[in-house]
Task: structure prediction
Amino acid sequence: MKEYLSNFSAASFWNIPNIETVLDYRIDTSKVSFTVSKQSARFKKKDKLIHLCELELPANAVVLKNGIMVAAPELVFLQLACSLDIHRLILLGLQLCSHPPGKPSEAITTKQKLKAFLAETPGHRGHRKALRAVKYIEDGSASVMESIAYMILTLPHALGGYGIDGAVFNYEIKLKNEGVKRLGQKRCFLDLYYKQARLAIEYDSFAFHSNPTEQGKDAVRSAILERQNIEVMHLNTIQVYDKNACKDFANNLATRLKKRKQNRAKNFDQMHAQLRTLLPAGKPVIETNKV
Result:
């Protein structure tokens, strides 16, 4: 194999949702990144950045897509582990595994595929960090803000999160007859859901919950879910961005889940501040409509 599109250029190729929010900058398309497998094939051109990888890769690590040889999404994740801090790498993984509610086939990859790929690539640069990050990645986020809120609430204290793990993304709930009539649909998806506690967190973004009509629909939806014995907590954008309000929400969530709130991580404040840098500053973020 002479060369293949890789690193940030490959990340751009795969159209990872909100990749600029993940990276916190725009990918420079004037410098195209390629990887070669032999030192003798390494060369420089003004319009290319050439990387060298002499270690053996799995057969599925590089694929032919639209006539281009390109690093598979799982290899991109491993490659960018060398460039991203742990928080942005976890966010990258969440976005790689994201998809609209109820449409898992539209995900670029899955947690299972990432883990399987990493199991086949020991010794590669970034492997240790990638293995650490994949532990905190889950399938099914519907937006980058859902991904970030999930990280803030569920990551362990040592990574700056509140350690309230166990949530799943966009869990499908089949509605009973009254709910079907009231909402005009047979099912709905809960942004974050703690199955054992039957507790849902609905993220209310500015994009779809800023007018009285949408707020009224949310209230009706929550009431119907509660009649099906599902408790609903609403987390809005202002709460996520306000550090103290977010902490209050997390404390209330932990209390309802009967989870211990003790934090023994000495570096929590530093890591929490780093985690909060993921929040987009002054940028519009396109999010998926709820169902």
